[in-house]
């Protein structure tokens, strides 16, 4: 089978106007700006209002990406929304985005791979495009994490924020292919270290457990930290090897934005100089599946990524899932 190439046509992102600083949080839980900045690198995060649902934010990011690509929404064949905070249990959030942007006819589904959701979605879209099934796709990472955090738990509520990022990708001649190499993986043995125990069919939400803290996001931060570094380093190394590149060849490394100390450990082990690593978690916190596409959109718009640059996306999240993609923008 002859493979098509993949081309990045446009990016967009959206963040709610409301900002919550570390000092704002210190009025809610026993924490300080100094602790949050020194342990995580986070200074503030965006918080969505009641009308700013995941599909709303995803649609706003999608409109901006479509405009950057110069595409009509009606030309899309595929919409994937990576999220762990869907508007509702079903139908899938991509269908809700489709209705908002007027992309009737495109295939739609949501993809749940937690914070690795964007990288997984890019791989799925790339496979569908390269095999000739789809011509034009939009991949969106969108999260309203503030709707699932426990605002009484200082271990987690200081870490997360809301937002969305979107990327338009399309088929192109293989000679112009932007897709250089990737690696995806998962280890389900660790599913209990980062999860929301209540609310699925195993333990449905009821009137009796409505105040149980296990209905919110629960995380063993220390264990997650260590496995996150290990997994993202090995995924990056495998993707770089497939692309025939070294970490020093990268123009930009865009890692999942969970913790500055994790990002610095990855950069050091992959041998990418610090000035070629994109960091914006100080302004967003951890936006899970949205973190990489928001950072990518910022980097495109502020000139940190130029056409022809080699970029590595690497993510890690609940599952545990992990993955890395090397692209030429
Ligand atoms: O996106 C998916 C992947 N998620 C991640 O990658 C997150 C990975 N984990 C982390 O980023 C870090 O483990 C955290 C930022 C969550 C925690 O940092 P840490 O350096 O591992 O701190 P810790 O959990 O070991 O806590 C150290 C101390 C504890 O106090 P004691 O027991 O030593 O007295 C905590 O109770 O810091 C305390 N603490 C806080 N203090 C002030 C925990 N949270 C806070 C807080 N403010 N918000």
Summary keywords:
329 residues, alpha/beta, Peroxisomal Thiolase, Chain A, domain 1, 2 domains, 5-stranded mixed beta sheet, 4-stranded mixed beta sheet, 13 strands, 24% strand, binds oxa(dethia)-CoA
Give a brief description.
With 329 residues, the protein is an alpha/beta fold. The chain has ten helices and 13 strands. It is 32% helix and 24% strand.
Topology readout:
Blueprint: E1 5-14, E2 19-21, H1 22-25, H2 33-40, E3 44-46, H3 54-69, E4 78-82, H4 93-101, E5 107-111, H5 117-130, E6 136-144, H6 154-157, E7 162-172, E8 179-186, E9 194-195, E10 218-219, H7 221-243, E11 252-255, H8 260-270, H9 281-284, H10 291-301, E12 310-317, E13 321-328
Parallel strand pairs: 4-5, 4-6, 11-12
Antiparallel strand pairs: 1-7, 2-3, 6-7, 8-13, 9-10, 12-13
Helix pairs in contact: 3-4, 7-8
């Amino acid at each position: 089978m002859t493979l098509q190439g993949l081309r990045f046509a446009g990016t967009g992102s959206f963040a709610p106007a409301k900002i919550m600083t570390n000092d704002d949080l210190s009025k809610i839980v026993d924490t300080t700006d100094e602790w949050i900045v020194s342990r995580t690198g986070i200074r503030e995060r965006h918080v969505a209002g009641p009308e700013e649902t995941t599909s709303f934010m995803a649609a706003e990011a999608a409109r901006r990406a479509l405009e950057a690509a110069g595409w009509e929404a009606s030309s899309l064949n595929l919409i994937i929304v990576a999220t762990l905070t869907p508007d509702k249990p079903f139908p899938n959030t991509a269908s809700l985005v489709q209705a908002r942007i007027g992309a009737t006819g495109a295939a739609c589904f949501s993809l749940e791979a937690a914070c690795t959701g964007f990288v997984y979605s890019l791989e799925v879209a790339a496979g569908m495009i390269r095999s000739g099934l789809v011509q034009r796709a939009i991949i969106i990472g969108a999260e309203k994490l503030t709707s699932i955090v426990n605002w009484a738990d200082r271990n987690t509520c200081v870490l997360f924020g809301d937002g969305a990022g979107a990327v338009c990708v399309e088929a192109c001649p293989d000679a112009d292919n932007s897709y250089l190499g990737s690696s995806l993986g998962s280890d389900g043995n660790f599913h209990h270290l980062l999860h929301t125990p209540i609310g699925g069919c195993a333990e449905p939400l009821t009137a009796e457990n409505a105040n149980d803290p296990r209905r919110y996001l629960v995380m063993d931060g220390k264990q997650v930290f260590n496995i996150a570094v290990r997994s993202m380093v090995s995924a990056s190394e495998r993707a770089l090897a497939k692309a025939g590149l070294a970490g020093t060849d990268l123009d930009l490394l865009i890692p999942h934005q969970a913790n500055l100390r994790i990002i610095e450990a990855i950069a050091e082990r992959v041998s990418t100089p610090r000035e070629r690593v994109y960091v914006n978690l100080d302004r967003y916190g951890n936006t899970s599946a949205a973190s990489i596409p928001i950072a990518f959109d910022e980097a495109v718009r502020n000139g940190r990524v130029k056409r022809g640059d080699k970029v590595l996306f690497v993510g890690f999240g609940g599952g545990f899932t992990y993955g890395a993609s090397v692209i030429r923008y």
